[in-house]
Design brief:
The complex is a heterodimer of chains A (about 90) and B (about 160). Chain A has about 90 residues and is an all-alpha fold. Chain A has helices spanning about 5-15, 20-50, 55-75, 80-90. Chain B has eleven helices and no strands. The termini of chain B are close together. Chain B is mostly helical. Helices cover about 65% and strands about 0% of the residues of chain B. Classes of the chains: A mainly alpha (about 90), B mainly alpha (about 160).
Amino acid sequence: MGIFPYVYFMVRDFHITDDPNRIAFYAGLVTSAFTFAEFSTGFLWGRLSDRIGRKPVILTGLIGTALSVLMFGFSQNLTMALTARALGGLLNG
Amino acid sequence: MIGGALANPCETFPRVFARGTIWDQYPYLLPNLFSAFICLIGVVNGILFLDETHSALKLKRDRGRELGQWLASKAPWSSQLDRQHSFDSASEYAPLLGNEEQLPGYRTTENSPESSPRLSTARPTSEPHEQLSLGQASAQTDEVSTIFTRPVILNIVSFGILAL
C-alpha cells in the first residue's frame, strides 16, 4: 500500500525491459507478492498466536515487517525486490 | 503519500541529500527507512506497554510490561497518568450506551467505589428506558460523546496516518 507511488519507477530503474507494459506487469507482480504471501501465511500466524500468545506474534510481525521493508529499500534488482516483498507478507502476521 | 514524497530524495531535496552518497545509490531507500523506523517505534511501544489479550496466557509474567510500568513510574507526570489510566480502563469496559450515572464517575478524581462507573451500572435497568423516552435528543448527543472514547479516537487517528 505504501509503495504504490514509486513502485513503477523503481522497476523501471531495474532496467529489465524498455516496454512500459512489461514494466507495469512487473510492478504489479511486486505489489501483489506481498498480499499473496500474507494470504498464504496469515492463518498460520493466527494459530501460532493461539499457542504462544498475541503479543509475541504481533511483535515478531512488526520486526519482520521492518526488516523486509529495509531490504526492499536496499534492493538492486527485481529478484531482491520480489523476495523482500514476499518476506514482508510472510512475516507480517 | 509519504512514500511518494520521500522517494528519490536526490532529485526532490537536492540540498539536503547530496549526490554521490548512499541516497544516490539506493534512491528508494528513504521511504522504506522511514517505514522501518515507524515499525521499530511500534515494537518498542508494544514491548513496554502492550497487554496480552489471550485469555489463557494473560496471567503469564510479562517482563516487558513490567519494564514499561517501571518506566511510567519514573516519569514526572506519572501521578496524573495513573488517574487517567484508571479512568481509561474503566471507560473501555463500561457499556457505551450507559445511563446518566456514569458521568459523575468521569468527573471525580478519586478512586472510591461509589464513583466507579462499573459499580454504578449495577443499578436497575429501568432508568435508561425512561431517559430514552423522555429526552431523545439529549440522549443522542450523550451517545455520540460516549462513543468517541479515547481509545476509539486514537484508533481512528492511527488508521488515518496509515493511509499516508
